[in-house]
Structure formats: C-alpha cells, structure tokens
Amino acid sequence: MTEKRTFKHWALLVTIAVLLASFVALGIEAFSEEPNHQDYCSGVTREIQVEACPTTEYDQKTDYMCWCNPKIEGQKEICTMTSPEWQQCYSQYQEAVDKYNFTIFIVLMAVGVICLIAGAMKFGPESIGGGIMFGGIITLIHGIIRYWSEMNDIMRFIAVGIALGIVIWIGYKIIERER
After folding, report:
1. Sequential DSSP letters for 120-168
2. Distance from first CA to last CA of the chain, Å, rounded?
3. CA pair distance 143, 67, nearest whole angstrom
4. What is the pLDDT of residue 53?
5. Which are the contacts of 24, defined by CB distance < 8 A and separation ≥ 6?
6. Which alpha helices (DSSP H) does 4-152 contain, by range?
7. pLDDT tens digits along 123-179
8. How far is CA 25 from CA 45, 108, 132, in A?
9. Contact in structure between 98 and 82 (CB atoms under 8 Å)
10. CA distances (Å), 44 to each of 58, 84, 88, 90, 178, in order?
11. Distance between CA atoms of residues 92 and 100, nearest Å
12. From the CA atom positions of the chain, what is the Rg in Å?
C-alpha cells in the first residue's frame, strides 16, 4: 500500500536527508583531525632567490614553482623559487592530506551505503525511509566529491559504478517488495 504523499511528507523527507548528511559530515569533523599545514611546514622558508630557474613547471605535490622578474637593463635577473625544504614539508603534508581524504572517503561511502539499506527497509512512514535513503545518497556523493581529485580514472569509474549498482539493487528490491 502506498501512502498519500503530501507536502508535509516531502518536507520531512528532504529535512531528514539534509540533517542526516549534515550530521555525518559534522561528526567526521568533530571526531577526526584533518592534517594541519602548520604541523608540517611551520618555520620553513617557502621561497629562495636563485640565478635561474631549473624549470618553470608547477608541481602540485611539492608546491614547486619558479619565476623570474623581468630583466631590467643594467641589472641582473632575479628569480624566485620554492625552497627544497618547503617542497619536502609540503610533500609530506600533501601525503597526509591524501591519506586522510581516502579514509574519509571510505567512511562516507560505508555510511552512505548503510543509510541506503536502512532507508530501504520497511519501517514507519515512507517519508522517513525515503529521507534516510536520500541522506545516504547525499553522503555517497559527498564521499566521492571529497576524494575525486585524488582518484585516477579507474578509481572514479569503480566508485561511481559501485554506487550506481547499490542504488539500482536497492531500487529493484523496493519495487519488488511493493508488488
């Protein structure tokens, strides 16, 4: 039997979804400590003066960059580059951030799947189960977005494929149950 869906039901569903996703995100912030840049690079000089740049290519993992001021007639060209000490501490910091983001990705994916399954179970009004499911979907999306930039194409494909498979499986179970 399908219950009549009124504005109140939809409002409850959306409110539960948003609050659930917020609760999960705030819980992660409250109980896990994100790496702090100052813990890795405090007191390290970021830039040094050099006569010429070895390369002008930017390296995101080490925050390496080098640039030269335009040469003024009669003066020596001055170049500035990221110090090797900074590159090392920044690389360590970035490695810690990547590891942290991967852990959070796994937690968010697991919580999202649990919420999808819990919401799909038949208990209480549909708007409550639907809200829990929708909150799980938001949590899955949050997890994927949080780690997206660190994923390679294969990981992205697998993560989205698993999420899609779970949602289709749960949708099939719900439709089958309602017949």
Report:
1. HS--S-HHHHHHHHHHHHHHHHHHHHHHGGG--HHHHHHHHHHHHHHHH
2. 9
3. 37
4. 82
5. 108, 111, 135, 139, 142
6. 7-31, 37-41, 84-120, 126-147
7. 678 889 889 999 999 999 999 898 888 889 999 899 889 888 988 888 887 777 766
8. 34, 8, 15
9. no
10. 19, 10, 10, 10, 63
11. 12
12. 24
pLDDT score, position 64: 83
Cα–chain center distance at 47:
30
Residue recorded with tokens 């949050």: 142
pLDDT digits (tens, 9 = 90+) for 83-110: 899 999 999 999 999 999 999 999 999 9
Arithmetic mean of pLDDT, 33-57: 88
This prediction's pTM: 0.76
Q: Which residue has the tokens 């001055």?
A: 78
CA distances to 2, 31, 60, 107, 134 from 53, rounded to whole Å, are 69, 43, 17, 43, 52
Helix (H) or strand (E) holding 35, with range, is: none
Top-confidence residue, 81 or 73 = 81
